[in-house]
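[audit] Reproducing an earlier prediction to check determinism. Same input, same settings, fresh worker. If the tokens differ from the archived copy the diff job will pick it up downstream; this log only records the rerun itself.
[audit] input (315 residues):
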Amino acid sequence: MNDDWLLLTATLPTRPSALRVRVWRALKATGAAALREGVYLLPTSAPTAGALWDIEQAARQGGAEAHMLVVHARDDAQEHDFRARFDRRELYLELLQSIKETRAQIRTAGAPELRKQLRTLDQQFAAVRASDFFPGKDGERAADALTALRTEIERTISPGEPSASSSRVERLEIDAFQKKKWATRKRPWVDRLASAWLITRFIDRAPRFLWIDSPRKCPKGALGFDFDGAAFSHVGDKVTFEVMLHAFGLESDAALRRLGELVHFIDVGGFPVDAAAGVEAVFRGLQAQHARDDVLLAAALPVFDSLYAAMQGAE
């Protein structure tokens, strides 16, 4: 079935240049294809289609001549030509090449540099995907390659990082989880720290945390989290913090869900979160400051308190 298309024509004055620059930047953000100078094409199904109408109005209000048409390809050949203008294959190939180059550096680059490169690749992938109005195998291959790279990096710089299981997350009663021993891997990173904060603030009124060298050393009777075989760990596309939100019925709290999205992106990547780079830097600094894990957690708790308060204020 052929799509309907938006066809924007705009004749912009050369002077002053501010309107031309503003419209050009806005058009670029929509992912519209230029058929020729002043003529731009976008499928009506594109998430950015509404922005194209806004550009038409902005151009007119700025004194330019602009018109929007809703058109239908006259035949399959023209439909194919229109769609070909939105082929993102080359962009995905560039991304795959960047992923390959990063993989080659895993054994030599430090953890901060590898995490920085992962963030850059996540942002690059998100930008291409946002303009991929007719997704296909190229996008799937890039997504799979990025996931595989992230897993390889995490297992290199953080041995013992859990693999996601396909098990069902059971609902649990908070009252049954009081005054417990909670065990996780030592030198906790953001998912483990966030989970410990969630336990302390929302689940167990008097928790005791144990920092273990290996999942095999988890004491009997302790509730493990964020390692393979633990009571709470990654399930499907959820990191441990998100699994615990669901298990204890806390996902109805919108601020906790937003905090979960932040923790998820910093821990395993995915959909970019604007605050992630700054928050990650804070936790890197806390790790560098505090060699003892109990002290590290004590320093992290008020940071999560502040993030939670900020996200409550965003409601």
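[audit] rerun output stored. Observation attached for the diff report: The radius of gyration is 24 Å.
[audit] end
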